[in-house]
Amino acid sequence: MMQIKRLEIAGFGKFQQQQFEFGDGFQVIYGLNESGKSTMRAFILGMLFGFPSRRHPLERHEPQGTNQY
Question: How many domains does the chain have?
Fold first, then answer.
């Protein structure tokens, strides 16, 4: 079983130089609207399964102010 312990995001959507720590067991990510829950989900999916490209234009979360993920 794979478990995500920590996310380190250099630049993805609204996240710049962010780190998130996760504990053992079931995790719930919650927050206000526009706080980045869906962006975090998209980042995790991109890291696991690949990011969208111009050839396959699914939802994109380009880094704001930089071109580094």
Answer: 1
